Amino acid sequence: MSPIQFVSLGPGEAELITLKGLKALQNADCIFCPETPVRDGHSLSRAADIMLRLDIPANRIRRFSLPMSKQRTDALNAYDQVYAAALSLHHAGKKVAIVAEGDAGFYSSVHYIYEKLQAAGIPVEQIAGIPAFIAAGARGGLHIASREERLTVIPGITTAEEIERLIQSQNTVVIMKLSQCTDEVHRCIRLHPEYDYRYFENVGTPQEKYISDGQQLETLRFPYFSLLIIRHNGF
């Protein structure tokens, strides 16, 4: 019996999916795909958009609503429903895939389902993908880390003091999902204008934005799909 596959889609540009990931989608009978409710009553799904651009048949894509909230109860309930549906299809002999943007094992809440299936003894497979900060580095022509340089990736729950400590320890710092720490990033820029700030938003999509001017960043409110790469110009 085929394992339930967790397919990483990459950051947004359809061509950045791996060949293994694409083949898994092409062979799947059912693909579970998150969508996010928006204010006008509609739902958006960046993951579904990627798959449709890859010519994955829409009738194989089963969307599920995933609320974007710090309160995770509704999201976990949605994942529990996907778990039950995927398990039923798996027992019926169907090839099942569950998708995640970026890499399914890197800051991806869908891994909750993977761990639950694994605990139940169900065969699972995680297919690697390109995380957003790697695609961002390529977009900006950056050598993110070289030789003995250290790289630290942190979520957007941080402070200007933590960023300062990491930079002074000769780390390149990547902050994911900046919407949670907009004010602290602005404060860090004011305290340390000498740092090299590279800001990326909606990497790999038509709404992609790349800014390397720290002063310009001070005026922005950062959305959920944003990241920042910070280095000390002296290192």
UniProtKB/TrEMBL annotation:
Catalytic activity: Co-precorrin-2 + S-adenosyl-L-methionine = Co-precorrin-3 + S-adenosyl-L-homocysteine + H(+)
Provenance organism: Bacteroides stercoris
Pathway info: Cofactor biosynthesis; adenosylcobalamin biosynthesis
Gene3D superfamilies hit by this protein: Cobalt-precorrin-4 Transmethylase, Domain 1, Methyltransferase, Cobalt-precorrin-4 Transmethylase, Domain 2
GO molecular function, one term: precorrin-2 C20-methyltransferase activity
Protein name, per record: Cobalt-precorrin-2 C(20)-methyltransferase
Membership in a protein family: Belongs to the precorrin methyltransferase family.
EC number(s) recorded for this UniProt protein: 2.1.1.151
Domain (Tetrapyrrole methylase): residue spans on this chain: 5-211
Oligomer and partners: Homodimer.
Keywords for the protein's UniProt record, in alphabetical order: Cobalamin biosynthesis, Methyltransferase, S-adenosyl-L-methionine, Transferase
One of the GO biological process terms: methylation
Entry-linked InterPro entries: 4pyrrol_Mease (IPR000878), 4pyrrol_Methylase_sf (IPR035996), 4pyrrole_Mease_sub1 (IPR014777), 4pyrrole_Mease_sub2 (IPR014776), CobI/CbiL (IPR012382), Uropor_MeTrfase_CS (IPR003043)
